[in-house]
Amino acid sequence: MMALRELSSLGKCLGVKKPNKYSTQGDKKVPVLHNNNGPALVGLVTIATHLALVQQWLEYRLTKVAGCHKDDIKTILKDLNSYLEDKVNLAGNQFTLADTLMYYGIHHIIVDLAVQEKEKHMNVTRWFDHVQHHLPPVVVLRNRVYTRGHH
């Protein structure tokens, strides 16, 4: 039970919202993190490491990517490309909030890249395409703004 309290405290510290569910497994009450989009994570250290990694990428997104100068774009793409070389998502194999926010953070950069630049940053391009197809479509309602009497 102590491990569950520690995880709960860690989650609060890192700003993790309620979609994550904790439980225990086995006689020794090993903590388990259940999330909505992947296998459960088992063990206090495994869960803490995962949450810290997500937090790290959220910080990177806010401090390095948001409002970056044109000179910084090459460094950001190089860093991401290198990191994603052997990973599906930013936190390993699980899709997280970090992937969603990073996607929207670099969207304007990726769409403006020439084909040669996209090929140069192949891992970022692969990850971007994966995230793009993982996110739900944006629904745009086509309602009239004005009624007939207000032409």
TrEMBL record:
Identify the domain of life.
Eukaryota
Question: Taking every annotated instance into account, which residue ranges of this chain make up the domain Nuclear-export cofactor Arc1-like N-terminal?
Answer: 51-134
Q: Which GO terms describe its biological process?
A: positive regulation of DNA damage response, signal transduction by p53 class mediator
Write down a Pfam family by its short name.
Arc1p_N_like
As given in the record, the signal peptide range reads none
Q: Name one GO cellular component term.
A: aminoacyl-tRNA synthetase multienzyme complex
Q: Which PANTHER family match?
A: EUKARYOTIC TRANSLATION ELONGATION FACTOR 1 EPSILON-1
Protein name, UniProt field = Eukaryotic translation elongation factor 1 epsilon 1
Q: Which organism is this entry from?
A: Hucho hucho (huchen)
